[in-house]
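Quick start: what a row looks like.
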Amino acid sequence: QIGFTEQEKRELAGVIFDESAKYGYDPFLIMAVILTESSFTRGQVSENGAMGVMQLLPSIGTDLASRSGLGAGDSLALFDPVVNIRLGTLHLFEQILKFRDVRKGIIAYNVGETRLREQIRDNQPLPGRFFQTIWRNYTMLKEKYDI
């Protein structure tokens, strides 16, 4: 919520609810991803270059934008929170669909599809910290705000 006006907060809440409904998610899952990735802070850029409230890599964001028609296909569009949430939710949906598992989809969202497939193939333990943080934030949000 850092850097957002009240009107923008309402707009983003609507986008989160709309995108969640489109893919059959609980909106609190998307909110948990945003809370974990950027603490709802505008303009975030990670050390590895992931951008926006859902921390999308420019290569992933521009690919999603060109395939879905969302955004301008320019990595700077990832700083638009509405575009970022739409593309991030699509990316999460695609990962969950590819792995047919919510936990693995969330992990793939964080470490990348290729790396996760290599870890599964090599029988390596899956990284759990990101998923655990998402789940803890999801549970907290559900308890605090669920009506």
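That is the whole record. The chain is about 65% helix and 0% strand. The two ends are 21 Å apart (CA to CA).
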